[in-house]
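EI: anyone free to look at a 268-residue chain?
SC: sure, send it
EI:
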Amino acid sequence: MSLPGVYKTTLKDGTISYRASITHQKKHISLGSYPEEKTAHAAYLLAFSVLSDMAHKIHDYEQSLPLSFEKWVVLINLRDNGIYFATPIYLMKTYFLYYLEPELELKFDLEDLFYYASHKIMRRGGHLFVADYGMQVTLSSRYGIKNYAVQGKDFQFINGDSYDFRYENIKILNSYHGVSLIRRKGSVLYRARIHIRSYYLIGYYDSAIEAAIAYNKAVDIVKERCPEKNYEMNYITELKASDYADIYKQVAVSEKIYSFSAKKPCKP
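SC: here you go
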């Protein structure tokens, strides 16, 4: 007879394994698989204790415990907030925390709750991402931050916390390809550049939209000479097509772009 909360199973290779689970508020929760029955039972007993004793806190977690940290957070949130999430989310009043480690928590607005309740956040090489429709989607891209963006130049976290992804904390300084906000001789300008064999200056402009359109114009010029080059274009939704066309026609582009020689090979 199995110990409470434990049932024996056989893996595909014939190995015996013991699965631990617990039912709380009519919700059946899997706690994990273990090579020994006594360890699986210890996980069940700990889960029961967490769900019934408010003394257990998220930051009390230790690696030696028979529960994974993810399950630890899930159980504490269920105990405190009465809601089960499969991912390590803890609800606050006006936002929620997503725990990657006991001392590493991400903050999100409640409107993102459904998404992160069904998408597990992973970390690799300092990058945070989720698997979405078979693709790796970076967290930053969900908030309008381009992959090439530089913190402090193209975007900033207003309170200085780069793990706080609440919308009010993210400020996009520049959302266009090839455009950078710079300060020059006491003025704020937008610089447009394009990479051909190296970076070519397109020009300096008074607005980000004008710089973005100048970048698009430079892309069109380069692709006439090097059609194999692959550039992402800027999409300016704020303008009518006729207004975009007027700016495109009038915006100045460096002569170096026009004089770019196609005789030299165009490298991607």
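EI: Helices lie at 37-52, 69-81, 113-118, 208-225, 241-250, 255-258.
SC: 👍
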